[in-house]
């Protein structure tokens, strides 16, 4: 405790709890007070989805992520394609086209080889679909009862085009906030299978690679300010992270946020807010107002952005805070979640 940069306890938890992995305030505290001071470094301090670094005169994006989703297979995907798409998308949020991935596989003793093969096939198929090569990897096995079938870690690198500078610090009041499509499908799809819930229609995960969508947006203008893929913590967490880093306020038109009816109904039954539910094939963009219409049109012309919508704007008021205008004409604070509504969804 005495070695921490801040003496405040991590939500008064002396031990790690599930909320520390949820992408909300507890995750942020864990990184801020434990990992960042221990690791140090200016690049890490940016705390983006991926790191943009210069190496040998080339500007690269570099990212890593781990996947512990339960169950391994869910409507619309599995842990294999989720791992590929997740890392490809983190690189895309820097404007980079992913080039190479690594894949580390941790297997639990006793898992069926047919399951391992099925996941491996999904990894290969997703990599080919995203136009990326799995160039290196690793395999480990843990004793029965010390894992959950299969865990994956993927890391990736890609080139950032000249003139592209995507980071929260570039956001200014007046920027238009655009989401690339309906939110919440991934988290609800995983939860429905895990808990054996039925909502009248099958909710399918939105997991998908976003590199080509981002490329289409950058063709309109390289002057996009920031992109995020709202995974853990959902759209609410991404907006709060951007608002905090940019020191601007964000106003969201709640009725403009696209939520599929099945997701809205499922969230109503489960007591969840769709704004906090994870996505794996969506992005949120802060775009200069003068380019917003053209960028939105390019997004809607792309298969992964057909449902794109303007949902709000950056404002000078209440810096660091996200508020939503409700359908009744009032406003509510959309805060950073403390832990997570749905654990183990990525």
Give the topology, please.
Blueprint: H1 25-39, E1 51-55, E2 58-67, E3 73-74, E4 77-78, H2 79-92, E5 97-108, H3 113-130, E6 133-142, E7 150-159, E8 176-179, H4 185-195, H5 211-220, E9 226-228, H6 234-246, E10 249-253, H7 261-270, E11 284-287, H8 289-300, E12 309-315, E13 322-325, E14 331-333
Parallel strand pairs: 5-6, 10-13
Antiparallel strand pairs: 1-2, 2-7, 3-4, 5-7, 8-11, 8-12, 9-11, 10-12, 13-14
Helix pairs in contact: 2-3, 5-8
Characterization of the model:
The protein has 346 residues and is of the alpha+beta class. The protein has 3 domains: 1-39, no CATH class; 57-159, 60s Ribosomal Protein L30, Chain: A; 168-333, PurM-like C-terminal domain (Phosphoribosyl-aminoimidazole Synthetase, Chain A, domain 2). It contains 8 helices and 14 strands. The chain has helices at residues 25-39, 79-92, 113-130, 185-195, 211-220, 234-246, 261-270, 289-300, and strands at residues 51-55, 58-67, 73-74, 77-78, 97-108, 133-142, 150-159, 176-179, 226-228, 249-253, 284-287, 309-315, 322-325, 331-333. α2 runs parallel beside α3 (113-130) and α5 crosses α8 (289-300). The radius of gyration is 19 Å and the shape is globular. The model is unreliable at 1-9 (pLDDT under 50).
């Amino acid at each position: 405790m005495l070695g921490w940069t801040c003496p405040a306890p991590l939500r008064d938890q002396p031990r790690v709890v599930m909320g520390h992995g949820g992408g909300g305030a507890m995750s942020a505290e864990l990184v801020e007070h434990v990992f960042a001071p221990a690791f140090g470094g200016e690049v890490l301090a940016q705390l983006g989805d991926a790191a943009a670094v210069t190496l040998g005169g080339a500007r690269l994006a570099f990212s890593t992520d781990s996947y512990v989703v339960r169950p391994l297979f869910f409507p619309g995907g599995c842990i294999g394609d989720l791992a590929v798409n997740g890392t490809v998308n983190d690189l895309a949020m820097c404007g980079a086209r992913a080039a190479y991935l690594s894949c580390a596989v941790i297997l639990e003793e006793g898992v069926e080889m047919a399951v391992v093969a099925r996941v491996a096939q999904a990894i290969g198929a997703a990599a080919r679909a995203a136009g990326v090569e799995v160039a290196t990897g690793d395999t480990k096995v843990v004793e029965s009862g010390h894992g959950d079938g299969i865990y994956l870690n993927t890391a990736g690198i890609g080139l950032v085009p000249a003139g592209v500078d995507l980071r929260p610090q570039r956001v200014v009041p007046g920027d238009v906030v655009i989401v690339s499509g309906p939110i919440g499908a991934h988290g609800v799809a995983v939860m429905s299978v895990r808990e054996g819930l039925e909502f009248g229609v099958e909710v399918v995960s939105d997991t998908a690679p976003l590199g080509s969508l981002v490329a289409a947006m950058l063709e309109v203008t390289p002057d996009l300010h920031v992109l995020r893929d709202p995974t853990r913590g959902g759209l609410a967490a991404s907006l709060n992270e951007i608002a905090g880093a940019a020191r601007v306020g964000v106003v969201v038109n709640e009725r403009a946020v696209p939520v599929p009816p099945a997701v809205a109904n499922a969230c109503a039954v489960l007591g969840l807010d769709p704004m906090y539910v994870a996505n794996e094939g969506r992005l949120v963009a802060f775009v200069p107002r003068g380019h917003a219409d053209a960028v939105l049109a390019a997004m809607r012309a792309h298969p992964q952005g057909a449902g794109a919508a303007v949902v709000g704007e950056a404002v000078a008021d209440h810096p660091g805070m996200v508020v939503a205008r409700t359908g009744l004409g009032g406003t509510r604070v959309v805060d950073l979640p403390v832990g997570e509504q749905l654990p183990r969804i990525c």
